[in-house]
Amino acid sequence: LQKLIHLLQATDDPLIQEQALITLSNSAAFSVNQDIIRNLDGLSVIGGMLSGCAPKVKEKALNALNNLSMNIKNQEEIQVYITQVCRSLESAPLNSGLQLAALRLLTNMSVTSDYHHKMINSIPCFLRLLSEGIERTQIQVLKVLVNLSANPAMTRHLLRAQV
């Protein structure tokens, strides 16, 4: 895991970055690896791949963060990327893998109400995707919206959102 994280830091080759991120993402399926990746500063390395990288690399980084977000301590570190993830969601091509990866991560990050406030500005985007997206996009958006709607503090924001 340490070598993969170092490889991500050392290369600009998108194909190598994608493969390293896929391997880290698969490794994150095991809870012990989630802690190891966090302790090796892997979350910030993977989070750094969300800016200035090829769309496929961003998608793989989002998938890795999604798998890593199954851990409360990891969520505390991943939450700093929520605004950036929302921007990626809004600028990604409709129904793209990048958009779905962003929605999956936002679904996990919205399971508790801790980070809902960071998603308020994206509510109009969620509603637009619900209207314009294909079924798999709509289902993923609905998961985020259901999580947000479970928080009474979000009711006003959800009902006042302009689409």
UniProtKB/TrEMBL annotation:
Q: Extract the SUPFAM superfamilies matched here.
A: ARM repeat
Where it mainly occurs, coarsely classed, is mitochondrion
Q: Which residues form the Armadillo repeat-containing domain?
A: 1-163
Concerning InterPro entries, the annotation shows:
ARM-like (IPR011989), ARM-rpt_dom (IPR006911), ARM-type_fold (IPR016024), Armcx_regulator (IPR051303)
- Where in or outside the cell? Mitochondrion outer membrane
Which topology term describes how it sits in the membrane? Answer: Single-pass membrane protein
List the record's Gene Ontology CC terms alphabetically. Answer: mitochondrial outer membrane
Keywords (alphabetical) are: Membrane, Mitochondrion, Mitochondrion outer membrane, Transmembrane, Transmembrane helix
Protein's name in the database: ARM10 protein
Biological source species: Rostratula benghalensis (greater painted-snipe)
